[in-house]
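Lecture notes, unit on protein representations.

Consider one protein chain, 158 amino acids long.
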Amino acid sequence: MTIPPISHTSTDPLLDVVTANTAHNQKKATLVFPLAKVLAAADQHKLGYAETEATPRLWWVKDDGTHLMNNGQDPTDTPDDTYLPTVVHVDGWGPGTDARSILGGDDFRESIDLTTPIFEDGTTLLGMLRQAATDGATRFLLKATFDDTHMHQTYITE
């Protein structure tokens, strides 16, 4: 697929790229996170909705901007701020940005399991992230392809 050039006068180049990749009402987005911050977010855990075991997860959240956060304790779970969830914003999509242009209109939280094997050799996403950091990678890319009813995610480090 060839992406048409983005105008230098574009007011929303990321939206222009997503729109250029739109086919059959399907959108694609590549979200870039600093790898070291993503790894730091993967250390505190609690039970999520309908879960029976507190396992390492990241929650991909779209509300005020879009970000990853750990499933650490909520402020209401603790008497002080020592266990607040760690939040890692997408490069360029922090608080005050409107992620509806790339991810649709509704806010959401997508749970990403860090401990289920994702490769044939048994490597988990957390293992992949740790190895990538050891090998010198600095970025975690979440690639999403979605339409109004389904979403597919791919994880890459570089």
